[in-house]
Write a structure and sequence with these properties.
two-stranded antiparallel ribbon, 14 helices, alpha/beta, binds nicotinamide-adenine-dinucleotide, 7-stranded mixed beta sheet, Dehydroquinate synthase-like, alpha domain, binds zinc ion, globular, Rossmann fold
């Protein structure tokens, strides 16, 4: 399956298939710099042999510690020391952390070189498209970054089968978000395909949902690349989600699942359906900290003014609303009641 952006220039294709990596064409570049998740390199060495033989390999340990200024400093200087030109390409092979990190390197190296994404997690069906790249600051997630369109996204589904369940679940969090944005019908259909842990573990029927999520994200980012309006809706579940991820050090998409429950409560809806579904999927419980711990982080989130925090709410349509601290606190209390 091949999806295509529809900008006026710098379009890119998103290829989603088993063996997509074989479509990589490096003939136009004088040097390929591959920033790769070392776990993926270990697990899929054979699949990556051809690529490794044509490129300079920089294995990195995935995760939030990768998305730091110190790792950026270390890796970009190694790349510069080893020689790079404007005709070089940076290729990210890994999940969202590697994609965000390598993309930020590509955006800033020599003021920008070409960038190709080879996502290897379910979550990265979301993070590999849309062009947001970046690293974390001490005070919060993704606060240092850029917009950088990839030249291509090669989503090779053969990578996904080695993911541990907790990462499948994390990626599924973003699929749920996309389905919630699409509407009730999509959410129910997703639930019936993946009602519990076993169905998700097998990944049967996942391909259709990955493509559906990517298509939806592409439509939104094409209409509003720089997040003036519509793109903000993709932050559904993320305002509290980022705070939970940062505070509890849990996988991104799992934190978003907690954020989706909170956004549902804040929208004045019953969260019971999501709560029992997430139980069946075995989303690990978290012990909530006091509201202020999350509130501090939410205020720092780049989307907010000081008095109100912008939230994506599920009203008749998906809406962006500035929500007062009082309302946030009240909804958090209700959430706490469910989490006891
Ligand atoms: P990740 O890159 O940290 O990968 C998660 C774990 O899976 C790591 O331990 C990694 O080593 C392992 N892994 C990766 N591929 C594997 C494979 N094929 N088999 C076995 N293990 C594998 O995390 P992620 O969940 O992919 O991405 C999360 C990151 O994405 C967060 O930093 C988040 O902020 C970012 N994100 C960015 C955007 C965006 O638009 N740029 C959107 C959503 C999320
Ligand atoms: Zn996300």
């Amino acid at each position: 399956m091949e999806l295509q952006t529809n900008y006026t220039r710098d379009d890119y294709s998103v290829i989603v298939e088993h063996g997509a990596l074989r479509r990589l064409d490096l003939s136009v570049y004088d040097k390929a710099i591959v920033i790769i998740d070392d776990t993926v390199l270990k697990l899929h060495g054979e699949r990556l042999q051809l690529l490794c033989s044509q490129a300079h390999i920089y294995p990195v340990a995935a995760g939030e510690t990768l998305k730091s200024l110190s790792m950026y400093d270390q890796v970009i200087n190694q790349i510069i020391d080893n020689g790079v030109t404007r005709q070089s390409v940076v290729i990210a092979v890994g999940g969202g952390s590697v994609g965000d990190f390598a993309g930020f390197i590509a955006a800033t190296l020599l003021r920008g070189v070409d960038f190709i994404q080879v996502p290897t997690t379910i979550l990265a069906h979301d993070s590999a498209i849309g062009g947001k790249v970046g690293i974390n600051a001490c005070g919060g997630k993704n606060l240092i970054g850029a917009f950088k369109r990839p030249k291509a996204v090669l989503y090779d589904l053969d990578f996904l089968y080695t993911l541990p369940y907790s990462e499948k679940l994390s990626g599924f969090g973003e699929i749920i978000k996309h389905a919630m944005l699409e509407g009730e019908e999509a959410l129910l259909a997703l639930h019936s395909d993946f009602p519990d842990r076993n169905s998700l573990k097998s990944l049967e029927r996942i391909e259709m949902w990955l493509i559906r999520g990517m298509r939806q994200k592409l439509n939104v980012v094409q209409a509003d690349e720089y997040e003036a309006g519509l793109r903000k809706t993709l932050n559904l579940g993320h305002t509290l989600g980022h705070a939970v991820e940062f505070h509890h050090h849990i996988p991104h998409g799992q934190a978003v699942m907690h954020g989706l429950i909170y956004a549902t409560i804040l929208s004045g809806r019953q969260p019971d359906f999501l709560l029992s579904w997430f139980d069946a999927l075995e989303l690990p419980n978290i012990k909530l900290s006091p509201f202020d711990d999350y509130h501090q982080l939410m205020i720092k989130d780049k989307k907010n003014s000081l008095e109100y925090i912008q939230f994506i709410l599920l009203k008749e349509h998906v809406a962006v609303e500035a929500v007062s601290e009082e309302r946030l606190r009240a909804a958090f209390q209700i959430l706490g009641g469910y989490y006891e």
